[in-house]
Each structure stands twice: as C-alpha cells, then as structure tokens.
Backbone:
C-alpha cells in the first residue's frame, strides 16, 4: 500500500468502509466488561479483540482500519500472531489512540483539555514501527450552558492541542484523526449542539491551518448534531442529517477527504439510521462514514459474554453491525434489513 498521507486517508474512507474504534483504555473496557460479567484481564481483552479482528467478512469488506490502544498494538493473538498482523492480513490499517485523556481545565470548572503532547514525537516513531499508519486524539467538549460550559478557553485549548498533535503525526508519516467530540449527554437542544459544534470546528480549522497541517492527509472524527440525551428528545434522522451537513458545509474545508463519525452513546440502530440519512442527502464534498466504538461493539460484546463457545455468535453480531454501517456509509441502509438479520 502506498504510504502517502493522502492515500492512507483515502483508504480509511474508501467507499462503504469505516473504522472500528477498539481503543478503549483499560479503565473503559473494564466498565464494558462489567456489564457482561467478564473480568477484564490482558488475556480477556486480547481474546475479545482477537474475536473481532478475525471476523473475516467484516474486516475485509466493511472495515478499513482499527483504532488500537497501546496495550493492543503490542499484543499477540492466542496462537502467537501479532494482532496488528491479523488486521493487516484482512487488508485493514492499524491505527493508535495517542492522547492521554481529557483532564480538568484549570480555572474552568466543568471544562476539560486533552493531554498527551509531551514525548508524542518519540511515541509516534515507536507506533509507526509497530505498524500504525493513522492515529487518534479525542478532545471532549461538554455542554452545560447555564454554567458557562464550554468556555471559549476550552474550545481554543483543545483545538490548539489537536493541531499540535496533527502536525506531529504528519511529520511521522501518520494520518491524524482529529476528534473534537461535543458530548451528547447534556439537556441541550439540537440548535445548541449545532452552535457549540460550529464554534468548535471553526476554531479547530483555524488552528490546523496555523500549524501547517495538510488537510488532505487528515480525517475528521466529529459528533453528529443532535439534541442532548437529558433533553428527553430524540432528533429524527432527517433532522440530524440536515443540521449536521449544514454545519459541515459551513466549517469543514472540501480539502478534507473524509469524516468518520463517533457514535457517542447513540443506540446501535440510531447511529446507523443517522449515518444513512446523512449520506442519503448527498452528494457531499467529503466521504462520510463511521468510526464507531460502542455502536459497533455493544452487540458483539453481549453475544460473546466472555465464552470461547460464543466466538462465532460474537463475530456474527459484529459482522451484522459492520454490514449495516457499510450500507449506511453508502446511503443504502433500510430499517427492514435489521429485522431480516
Ligand atoms: P464511540 O463510537 O463509542 O463514541 O467511540 C468512538 C471513539 O473512538 C471515541 O473516542
């Protein structure tokens, strides 16, 4: 495969393909395993992820790349094959989460800034040797307008960090996935989500330009525009599509090859239906696909539940969700295909 940043980015958003975000930190995966009653150990985390990476149909047809966590990129499958080699053998690209998490922003209660820039150049060189050709950095923007959250300082600090990260990635020959996640947990309406997401993306692209990041060699990983969960409203796919595309047309340069959404707590089918509605109102200047964690993994986690005898069922559940999201990335999904499964 070509190693040009532009070609790697194009491969990540190849028609109908998207990313599997399997980069949960050890703390987050423990929370997911607690729900299915599985103890989180290095081996159980390995077995679970190996199950997905060996789901041949999903990995070869629907998944362009996998975002890994530091532990996983160094791990070997039960038979001794590096997990990275299993991903590559399926024709998918290994990627790596490189941020060190969102931490409280001093002086701004309720706001966070993502850390992890110190030593990043050296870590990226190491990850490149381990096979990573793209990376991810997640900034977290919460919404609580009554409390002044997010502050302008939080938006600009996070955008600045994302731009420094992206420049370091490109220097290392790694495509940066820039993820400014505006959380959907709040009580806000869809217009507020739109306004905060707009301020966030304007600042982000200002900073990326200032840092001389080549946009053709980047991927944006954003939230969709929708009403916050605590508002009690669920935005319709048509509303989500209209507002999300309006936002991107106003803020995301056409030089950006692709946009791969996070699922952010949406239900599995909701995330698929929304992605489908977004593509159904195309054509758009960028590819629009998925980079889902929870919306791709909730079903296989449940089907697997830590038992070797359930590996085939877990792989089938993963393949089904990957297939549905593949169709949504093409604007060809229908709700009736879910029942047919
Ligand atoms: P979710 O799809 O579960 O939001 O995870 C995607 C991700 O990588 C968040 O950083």
Residues:
């Amino acid at each position: 495969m070509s190693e040009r940043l532009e070609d790697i980015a194009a491969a990540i958003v190849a028609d109908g393909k998207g990313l599997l975000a399997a980069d949960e930190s050890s703390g987050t995966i423990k929370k997911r395993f607690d729900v299915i009653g599985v103890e989180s150990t290095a081996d159980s985390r390995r077995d679970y992820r190996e199950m997905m990476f060996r789901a041949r149909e999903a990995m070869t047809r629907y998944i362009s790349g996998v975002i890994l966590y530091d532990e996983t990129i160094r791990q070997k499958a039960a038979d001794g094959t590096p997990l990275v080699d299993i991903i590559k053998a399926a024709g998918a690209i290994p990627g790596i989460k490189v941020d060190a998490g969102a931490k409280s922003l001093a002086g701004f209660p309720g706001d966070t800034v993502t850390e992890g820039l110190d030593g990043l150049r050296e870590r990226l060189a190491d990850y490149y040797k381990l096979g990573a050709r793209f990376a991810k950095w997640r900034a977290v923007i919460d919404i609580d307008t009554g409390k002044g959250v997010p502050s302008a300082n939080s938006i600009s600090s996070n955008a600045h960090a994302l731009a420094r990260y992206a420049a370091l990635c490109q220097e290392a020959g790694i495509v940066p996935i820039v993820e400014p996640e505006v959380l959907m947990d709040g009580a806000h309406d869809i217009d507020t989500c739109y306004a905060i997401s707009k301020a966030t993306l304007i600042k982000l692209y200002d900073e990326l330009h200032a840092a001389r990041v080549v946009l053709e060699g980047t991927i944006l990983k954003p939230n969709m525009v929708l009403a916050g969960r605590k508002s009690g409203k669920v935005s319709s796919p048509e509303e989500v599509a209209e507002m999300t595309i309006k936002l991107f047309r106003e803020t995301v340069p056409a030089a950006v090859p692709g946009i791969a959404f996070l699922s952010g707590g949406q239900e599995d089918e909701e995330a698929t239906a929304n992605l489908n509605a977004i593509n159904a109102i195309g054509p758009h200047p960028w590819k629009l696909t998925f980079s889902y964690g929870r919306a791709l993994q909730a079903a296989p986690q449940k089907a697997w539940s830590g038992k070797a005898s359930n590996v085939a069922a877990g792989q089938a559940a993963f393949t089904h969700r990957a297939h549905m999201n593949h169709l949504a990335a093409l604007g060809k999904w229908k709700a009736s295909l879910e029942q047919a499964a």
In short: The pocket of 1,3-dihydroxyacetonephosphate is lined by residues 21, 23, 138, 179, 262-264, 292-295 (CB under 6 Å).
